[in-house]
Structures are given as C-alpha cells and as structure tokens.
Amino acid sequence: MQEKTGIITMMGNPLTLLGKQPAVGDQAPEFEVLDNDLSPVRLSSFQGKVCVLASVPSLDTPVCDLEVRRFNKEAQDLGPDVALLVISMDLPFAQKRWCGAAGVESASTLSDHLRASFGEAYGVLIKELRLLARAVFVVDREGLVQYIQVVREQTDEPDYEDVLSALKKVL
C-alpha cells in the first residue's frame, strides 16, 4: 500500500497517509462503508448525484463537530441532487448518537471502521492513528473527481468557501 509523508500534521506532528489519492478528473474510486443502521453503502448508491465526500478524524472532536454542523447547514440549501457524505472511523452507533444530539439531518454520516475502504481508496487513512484525515472531495454526476482539499493541519477546519465554490461549478 502506498505511503505518503509530508502532507498532513496533527498539532504540528507529521503523519503518514496510506492509500492512493485520486486526482482531479479521475473516476472516483468505489468504496463501501456502513450507515448508522449498519447497512452497507457504496459510492455507486449515489449515481447521478453530485457527491461531497468529507472525511473527518472523529465526530467527537471540536473541529469535526464544527465542520459537520457547518456542512449540514450548507447542505440544506443544496437540493436533492447533492449528497453530502461525512465519513469517519467512528462506529455507526456513535455517529447515530452524535447526529441526534447535534440535529444533523442534511448530511449522512458513514463509518469506514470495518474495512477502511474509503480511507485506502482516497489516500486519507492515517497510518499512525487508523483515523481518516480531514479532506473534502467533490464528485460530479458522472462519477469524476472534480475537487480535492486535504487539510494540512488536522486541527484546522477546511476552507468552506473553496469547497462551496467548487461545488457550484459542478452543479
């Protein structure tokens, strides 16, 4: 499996990413994760929709909490042609509990804990922690990656305006 260093840090400490990150213009890699009811979900389940794939280290951290709440708020205005998928290594039960407490209804939280399928396919699996790096991918209706943002310092939020600008170009 491919290893990359020098891409991300957590609190200034360098981390290693595992997997091969797709490039803009590539076919988005298929993956299989679990929804909050333990049902398998694949990227192909959203065929014909624009997908925002936001990976986060853990919903139970302050920055991830802020990020998902912000994306959930933005998703309310995006319409039914956009699927906002937040993927973490959190267990589905914890994701369901967190969504209920946070009032998150417009974003779907998905768990990669079982196989790290998303983390490996998108090159965002953190070797040292077996968590996902904070990153955002926008996939168009044809299944092509149109935007990638890997947040360098994992305790920072993503550039929301850049993500939304890229998303509007795809819509």
CATH architecture: 3-Layer(aba) Sandwich
Q: Biggest sheet: strands, sense, closure?
A: 5 strands, mixed
Distance between the termini: 34 Å
Q: Write down the domain tally.
A: 1
CATH superfamily annotation: Glutaredoxin
Helix content: 10-25%
Given the C-alpha coordinates, what overall shape results? globular
SSE-based structural type:
alpha+beta
What does this structure look like?
The chain is of the alpha+beta class and 171 residues long. It has one domain: Glutaredoxin. It contains four helices and eleven strands, in the order βββββαβαβαββββα. The protein has helices at residues 62-75, 92-102, 117-121, 160-170, and strands spanning 3-10, 13-18, 32-34, 40-42, 50-55, 82-88, 108-111, 125-126, 131-132, 135-139, 145-150. The radius of gyration is 14 Å and the shape is globular. The mean pLDDT is 95.
